[in-house]
Amino acid sequence: MAPRRTAVLVSVALLFAGIETSVGNAQESPAPVKAVQLLGLTGVKQNAKGTLKVENGNLQFVHGKTNADITAASIQDIVTGDDTQRSVGGAVGVMSMAAPYGGGRFLSLFRKKIDTLTIQYRDVGGALHGAIFTMPVGAASAIQTELVSGGAHTTTTGQPTTDALSSKEQNAVQFPEHLSGKINASAIQVKMIESDEIKLPAEFQIALYENLVQQIEKQRTFQHVYRDGDRTAASAPDLVVLHSMVRGFKAGSERARQVTTVAGATSITVHCQFSSLDAKPLLARDVNGKVRFFGGNLKATYDFAKKAAHAAHENFSSPDRK
């Protein structure tokens, strides 16, 4: 009886060990979570819905047949937060606003809580990118933990690592506010938005940067638009460097905008400084971004980016552009 009893005990122990191993493996590779990529991933449209997971040391976002991967080792910062779908990236339709009280407008005040995951990472050429995701509550912190264990970096301040001059150093230099004529420039490098003096949420900082790069590219003023840290930018002829510093920020309320249509505006003021590669001052402008009525708070970053790109288009031109 003793040998049989021993065999049974060993079998039971092995069974529980197998269960524990399975649980451990499940914890190491959690199931993908439903997520929305608000912006930032190359080749993925804004507000794309898909699944997000960490697999083999990569942050992987799958949207239909599109698969975007970011290696954990390339990530410089990860910031998680919580918000509501409307305050981050939602848009309020005109019909919803026109509905009687008790209808669309009233119901839209009740928002589903979500997590936000904001990351900064560099590509193989050193260029800085940012991406913003939303997902169910509780999922962002788990993904952050996995990424850090896989080699991703975080900062204590939530500010990106950049080689830009400090705000005080830039303020000490006199920049002209107006130019008598357009300056020839074949390329521009967009530095990460600085926010040393103003406490700015991470998702706003990334949205400012990504929208700014996108809008300058859309204007087609320059032959090349380089990101912060891109190692190939230094060899570009007639390079213009754009430093941007947040000078003012008012976190509005989309709920207030929906109810009153006159209150709750979100606004951002950014000081933009254009200089040559050797730090010669070329132009400085204060640019405001606002969202007053419809749209999520992050729409203010898009408004800023359009105005800043227009300012660049008005004052610079590529010598080879016709």
Q: Which range best describes the helical content: under 10%, 10-25%, 25-40%, 40-55%, 55-70% or over 70%? A: 25-40%
The number of distinct structural domains comes to 2
Widest sheet: strand order?
Answer: 4-3-2-1-7-6-5
Task: Choose one word for the global shape.
Answer: globular
* Number of beta-strand segments: 14
Outline the secondary-structure elements.
Elements lengths: L1 H27 L4 E7 L8 E8 L2 E6 L2 E6 L3 E10 H4 L5 H5 L5 H4 L5 E10 L5 E8 L3 H11 L17 H5 L11 E2 L2 E4 L11 H18 L4 E4 L11 E12 L3 H7 L5 E11 L4 E11 L7 H17 E2 L5
Parallel strand pairs: 8-14, 9-10, 9-11
Antiparallel strand pairs: 1-2, 1-7, 2-3, 3-4, 5-6, 6-7, 11-12, 12-13
Helix pairs in contact: 7-9
Explain how this protein is built.
With 322 residues, the protein is of the alpha+beta class. It has two domains: 30-149, PH-domain like (Roll); 167-317, Double Stranded RNA Binding Domain. The protein is built from nine helices and 14 strands. It has helices spanning 2-28, 85-88, 94-98, 104-107, 139-149, 167-171, 202-219, 254-260, 299-315; strands at residues 33-39, 48-55, 58-63, 66-71, 75-84, 113-122, 128-135, 183-184, 187-190, 224-227, 239-250, 266-276, 281-291, 316-317. It starts with a helix and ends in a 5-residue tail after the last strand. Residues 6-10, 12-16, 19-27, 90-110, 157-167 and 256-262 have low confidence and may be disordered.
